[in-house]
Amino acid sequence: MLIYGALVPHPPIILEEIGGEERKKALKTVNAMKAIREKINSYAPESILIFSPHGPVFRDGLGIRSGERLKGNLANFGFTHTWEWETDQDLIQEIIKETSKDGLLCVELTDEVRSQYRIANTLDHGVLVPLSFFDQMSFRLVATGFSWLPWAEQYALGVAIGRAVRNSPRRIVVIASGDLSHCLIPGAPVTYDPRGEEFDRRLVNLIQENKIEEILRFDPVLVKKAAECGFRSLLMLLGVFDGLEIKTELFNYEAPFGVGYAIAGFEPGAEQPDRNLLPILTNRRKEEVINRRSKESSLVKLARLTVENHLCGEEKRIDLELPPEANSQAGAFVSIKKHGELRGCIGTIFPTQPNVAEEIRNNAIAAAFQDPRFEPVQEDELDELVYSVDLLKASEPIQSFEELDPQKYGVIVRKGRRTGLLLPNLEGVESVEEQVAIAKRKAGIGKEEAVEIERFEVVRYF
Question: For 80-103, b where at least 16 C-beta lie within 10 A, e where not — what string?
Answer without folding.
Answer: eeebebebbebbbebbbebbeeee
